[in-house]
DNA sequence: GCACAATGCTACATAATCTGTAGCACGACG
DNA sequence: CGTCGTGCTACAGATTATGTAGCATTGTGC
């Protein structure tokens, strides 16, 4: 259990600096965080569907990340079940989209 | 020491899917990876300077991430000492820049 | 040459985190 | 009722991070 269970930023390391970018960088720099956002990018997924999409990652971490991501307001759990991005989460995901093209070029340069 | 010291993609989980975005997401989704890229964004830093910038993180992890980031071709160690981004690394960092503005809006909405 | 400081980097024990498997409570269907 | 799927949790073992100390090397001044 972290130090606090307060509002947001319970133990988001970077938040100590007061710069929100640090908090965000820390939140996203946790295992499966980026991946979860990415997999949710084009539609809702159930917890088990998300697990499948995430290469059978442990439900333990997935639930932890999902909790943090929900607390941050990026992800929400629909009433009929199934996780999806909030409007804010979609914005964040859009920010990450150029990464896709970059990844392609990265591989090309690496293999060269 | 990890299992291999091979080219790239030694144990980058996502790379199993063959999609480079997964490898990238996994690499960046490790502790301090994003932060290192961010701190290097506007200039070179020595290993100890980077440590200071990264809130006194352990040199162990920093060296590990630095090694992975160098292997990926995002970071390089100058001959006179000091780490800096490669051209590819700067490209990647540029991709992340919109995150800064997003982080500001994120805080605004969270605090609201 | 020799102390001195700074560099990149590593060792090691402790603590935190992730993995993998199993299973819970709940609700919807039949 | 039985079975399925949902979100979610427990727990032991493996992995990774933390924190402190220190190494080898290089440059600088004396």
Defining key terms:
homodimer, mainly alpha, DNA-binding, 112 residues, two-stranded antiparallel sheet, Arc Repressor Mutant, subunit A, 5% strand, transcription regulation (chains A, B), HTH_HxlR (chains A, B), globular, DNA-binding (chains A, B)
Description:
Chains A, B: This is Transcriptional regulator. The structure is a homodimer of 112-residue chains. Chain A is mainly α and 112 residues long. Chain A has one domain (33-111): Orthogonal Bundle (Arc Repressor Mutant, subunit A), CATH 1.10.10. Chain A has helices at residues 20-28, 33-39, 47-53, 59-71, 87-96, 98-111, and strands at 75-77, 83-85. The first copy, chain A, has a two-stranded antiparallel sheet. The longest helix of chain A has 14 residues, at 98-111. The first copy, chain A, is globular. Mean pLDDT of chain A is 84; it is low at 1-11. Chain A binds chain B through residues 7-8, 13-14, 16-17, 19-26, 28-35, 38, 55, 72-73, 88, 91-92, 95, 98-100, 102-104, 106-107, 109-110, and chain B through 7-8, 13-14, 16-17, 19-26, 28-35, 38, 55, 72-73, 88, 91-92, 95, 98-100, 102-104, 106-107, 109-110. Chain A binds a DNA duplex (30 and 30 nucleotides) through helix 4.
Write the layout of secondary structure elements.
2 copies of one chain form a homodimer.
Chain A: H1 20-28, H2 33-39, H3 47-53, H4 59-71, E1 75-77, E2 83-85, H5 87-96, H6 98-111
Antiparallel strand pairs in A: 1-2
Chain A binds a DNA duplex (30 and 30 nucleotides) through residues 30-32, 46-48, 56-61, 63-64, 66, 77, 81-83.
